[in-house]
Design goal:
Layout lengths: L2 H15 L1 E7 L5 E7 L8 E7 L3 H8 L2 E8 L2 E12 L2 H7 L2 H6 L9 E15 L5 H14 L6 E6 L2
Antiparallel strand pairs: 1-2, 1-4, 3-6, 4-5, 5-6, 6-7
Protein name: General stress protein FMN-binding split barrel domain-containing protein
Organism: Rhynchospora breviuscula
Pfam family, one: Pyrid_ox_like
Length: 161
């Protein structure tokens, strides 16, 4: 596959998942993972989340912006390594804000406590099992055990920069 085709594949897999686990270094240096709702489906190498400025994760990201964002959906996994930055952009918050966001954060996009976390992806690795669903993945696992043949799926590391 070409680099452009592999990048499109990463976009498809991220778009299908929606919720990610963002891993970063906490104040004591230990790795911390938090579930985060991805705010945009048009992935251009930047992943956007909305968070509270005073949250532990925002404070930690300002001290050490290295992150890993992972997605899992229907037998596919994506791991994006990159750098996070905290962004004050009320217009972008207005564009991305929805009722789901209101369920977790107070005051809407105009609340100065609400900020964007933008993760600029450097690389992504994806794995996709044949068939693309949990049922198909289980069927392939059983078939592999019976036949002794290895399950073949897609796997690639993609440069996003």
């Amino acid at each position: 596959m070409t680099e452009q085709t592999e990048q499109k594949r990463v976009v498809e897999l991220i778009r299908g998942a929606g919720v990610a686990m963002m891993t970063y270094a906490g104040p004591d240096g230990a790795l911390v993972g938090k579930p985060m709702a991805t705010q945009e489906t048009e992935f251009d190498g930047t992943i956007r989340f909305i968070a509270e400025r005073s949250s532990e994760k925002v404070q930690a990201l300002q001290a050490d912006p290295r992150v890993n964002v992972t997605y899992n959906d229907k037998g596919s996994w994506v791991s994006v390594a990159g750098t996070a930055r905290i962004v004050d952009d009320v217009e972008k918050l207005r564009e991305l804000w929805d009722s789901f966001t209101s369920s977790w954060l107070e005051g809407g996009p105009e609340n100065p406590e609400n900020v964007l976390i933008e993760v600029e992806g450097a690389t992504a690795e994806y794995w996709s099992a044949p068939g693309g669903s949990t049922v198909t993945s289980l069927a392939n696992l059983v078939k592999s055990k019976v036949t002794g043949e290895r399950i073949e799926g897609e796997n690639a590391t993609v440069d996003l920069g």
